[in-house]
Amino acid sequence: MNDQGLSQEDYLTPMEEMEIDLFLEAVYRLSGFDFRKYMRSSIVRRLQNRMRMERATTISSMQEKLFHESGFVEKILNDFSINVTEMFRDPDFFKVFRHTVVPELKKLASIRIWHAGCATGEEVYSMAILLKEEGLMEKTTIYATDMNEEVLEKAKKGMFSLQKMQTYTKNYLQAGGSEAFSEYYTADNHFAYFEPSLLKNIIFAQHNLVTDSSFNEFHVIICRNVLIYFTSELQNEVQSLFYESLCTDGFLGLGNKESLRFSQCATGYEEFSTLQKIYRKKH
Amino acid sequence: MIGKNRFGISAKIITGYAVIIVCLVISIFVVNNQLSTMQKERNFIIHHDLQVHSLTNEIEKKLLEMENGQRGYVLTGSERFLKSYNAAENSWRDDFNQLYSLLADNPSQQNNLINIKKAMMSWVNETGEPIIALKKNNKNAAAVKGLQQENSIQNVENIRSQFEQFRSTEISLTEKRAAHLDSRNKNLTYGLISLLVVVIALSIGLALFISRSIVNTVKEVIASIKAMTSNGGDVSKRIFVKTKDEIRELAHATNDLLDSVEKRDWLQKSTNGIVGQYQGKATMNELGTTFISGVARSTDASYGAIYVRESMDSKKFIKKGQFAGTAADVGRDVFTIGEGLVGQCAIEKSPLLIENVPNDYILVSSALGEAQAKNVIIVPVLFEGDTIAVLELATLQTFTEEHKALIENVTKTFGLTVDSISGRMEIVRLLKESQALTEELQAQSEELQTQSEELQMQSEELRMINEQLEQRSLEAEGKSRELLQAKNELEEQAQELSLSSKYKSEFLANMSHELRTPLNSILILSEMLAENAASHQLAEDEEFARVIHSSGQDLLHLINDILDLSKVEAGKLEMLFNEVNMSELPQQLERNFAHVAQQKGLDFRVAMENDVPPLIYTDETRVQQILKNLLSNAIKFTERGTVAVHISSQAPKEKRVEANHWLCFAVSDTGIGIPKEKHDHIFEAFQQGDGATARKFGGTGLGLSISLEFIKLLGGTLELESEEGKGSTFYMYLPSLPEGVTTLASVEEETVLQEVAATVEVEEKLPPNEQGALGFFSGKTVLITDDDQRNIFALKTALQNEGMQVITAANGHECLTLLEETENLDLILMDIMMPVMDGYETIQAIRAQEAYQDIPIIALTAKAMKNDREKCLEVGASDYVSKPLKIEQLFSVMRVWISNQ
Predict the structure, then answer these.
(1) Nearest-CA distance from A271 to chain B in Å?
(2) Sign of the C-alpha dihedral computed for residues A102, A107, A112 and A114 taken in this order
(3) Is CATH 3.30.565.10 the classification given to domain B574-735?
(4) pLDDT at residue B361, rounded to an integer
(5) CB of B872 within 8 A of CB of B861?
(6) Of A134, A36, A155, nearest in space to A85 by CA
(7) Distance from CA of B773 to the nearest CA of A (A)
(8) pLDDT tens track for B154-176
């Protein structure tokens, strides 16, 4: 996997460690995006990728590009932000959400949901569909944020490739969708376009979990498969941000491989669905 | 080329030389002439004067000799002196005559001479002869005295002076002549010199003239050539020479050379121009159009078309460009090898020139009119010995040699270009393909990469979590053990639960059955008790027995209802279709219900129309049960007035099955009625108008729902007309079905009917071939399985409109058969509700086949039925679409499921 320049992640020399530190410092100073507290292994792998593509041999040479090659910072930022997502990802999460969280939400007069790290918006649309089917659409506002504005632009279009739609359909059905999935999109030869009415109560905004603070109080915060890229220290910080941003009895939905167990905030929550990693803020 | 009166350089030079030579000859002749004249004169002087002098001297000498002789003779008397005298006296006259003749040109001298002669004669006669004669006569003394006479001496002296004068005159004449000769000589010298000068001048003049005339034309030619070269090789100019000599010939020859150079230049330029124009063209059409228009323009052709071979393996030539074509219809678009002249030309690989174009061959048209093409040329474009393209040109004029040469020239290189362009296009296409593939691959690999990274990340985290978990292993183990235990318990409970729910219906059925047995005993016994007790029991007991009986009866009804309902729900209830005699029905009803109505003081009427057929096919028991339910209800909820049954032959507005005969049973009452909003409600199990009603009138509310289920099973419908406080009318429509209900009747049927109508409507609105989606679906094969022909028709038309191949099956069996026969199926649309073999079974059967594990199957389900949809997915449908179908939605779904194949 790695035959040039950087040694295997497990065996980074102290020199290389320093180079990476400096590189991330430069990225932070140049762009304001702070990856210093991201999981080092993940960062290293992505840097290795980029180095292979750029045929660079040392991280320091990459740093030079960072300063002197226009557009390189953006490349690095795109490399570092992972945008893998799909609609109704982990269908069971949505199924459980529908059956357990939704009844609780129905009691509220108005609902605010925050999708942190929404990437290209697949999960946001999933949530919107779910809420529509449950009749909560009208009284809900979904705040969808990501640090990458490029992906946000994509998300706003609500346009997904046809190839992925089969998986999405399967997920939707497994997630207990009550209609036909096709009710929500029209397709041309390449893309499926989601009904613009779904967007009505969705606000897309740029927000960086690492550097930005809370901006509202929410009933539900969904942040799935984002924190895995953060060091536990950073995870803790973000978790406190979520905790602050949740109202009492509010729900926090995490990815099914993520957990609050080792977070400082764990005590502030009760496990609402252990399997699907849905937590509820205690009184 | 040169005119008749050409005057060549050689002629010029020769003429020049000739002139000079002639001049020389003339001058030599003249000189010679002069010289000979002078010679003559000189000779004349020499001979004539010399003779004159000598003769004069001779005569003088002879005079002297005569004098001497005479003297001598006289003195000596010697005969010798007399002899010399006589000799001189005899000869001097001859000399005198000779001299005289010599002086014929000089009369004055002749006169002088005659004077001399006279003097001499006089001497001879007066002096000489007489003296001699004296001597002879021996008169010596007289003779000597004669001699001594002064006169005679004086005479001789006079003659001698005369001679002297004569001679001096002659000498002066001779001198004169010599002087004349001298002057002539001098003149001759002058003449010679002047002649020389004239000849030299003439020669130089001629030389200059000739050389100038030659050099000037040469200069003209040089100037023309220089002008051409200095003009950047402009060969359009020509050399013009006025003279008619070799230079003119040279100029003509040069002009011919220039002509040929210009032609070649034109050829080269035109070729380069055409070749240059089509350089860098990326597509065959661009290339063809540029090429043909270039060639046609250069050759003054009015019409042209270029056909390029589809590929080297193909026999088809496709038109790639045309010139002056009247819009679309210039020439054919395609021809195959050997087809017509063009095709022939492609085979023979040699150009074809048609000079006598048939009248109807082609009309070259412009905005103003059209004209007959005069010449048509068809040229094959070869590449590596094969015909790669064919060029056809038609002109109103004729094709010149240059045109042909040009065509030949450009076609030579064109083959290579066509090949390279087609190669390039192929490369571009492949490149695009490979780029697309690469992009796709890249995207996939990126996706994979990110996914794998994510997986790695997750596994890493898991690893970390595991480590931490290990630290808390004891606690975790303990908890997990507890959890396991709890889980096992839960599982057990869940199993029990599912088991118990599974037993529910069985239990209910059994229970009712078990209940009925003892209940029957109770009923029979209580009835017996009530009837028989009158004789030996108290009235009170009798009343008790009656209450027990009627309660038991109610209970039995209830149990029967529950049993039926659970059977219906479990799908176990089957209708038995048989002949039912309708004529007996009114009496039957009357028999059964008249007294019940009377008990409540109600009027009970049964009426049947005459057109009701005497025999219908249905389940008699169930019909009676339904009627009983409806009538019981009617009677139950009516306080006063009428309960009536009206039987007619009438079909409902919405038929769920096709039947020859329909009956309508209208059960009306004048009871409390049902409020509008409760109309739907009352058919649900255990429901009545409202709670109060139930309390007042009793009953379980099962009757109507059971009736409704039965009616559905019989293929009929139930309608309600009711107004609160005024009474209700239930209309039961039943079909006569000799074959029984073929479709499992259920709620959805109604909706299906509506859907078909809706679908057809959508179909009509659909514009043909909308938004070019044709390409996406075209060539895809879809199998529609639906028992409703109208549905199939509507779908088929819509899908065929999109260019799809549509195969249809009326039921599951057909669908499976067709699957075996069909290859390359892209998608299956599957109706769920079908006779013979329904959608679920069919889907299951399809998925059981190895080849069709992944084929997209889209189930068409009824909107209301959530369970149906779950079942669809369970059996393996890929997706479902709710009826009534919206065509755009259906297309979207199909795009999604066809997209990845």
Answers:
(1) 15
(2) negative
(3) yes
(4) 66
(5) yes
(6) A155
(7) 7
(8) 777 888 888 888 888 888 888 88
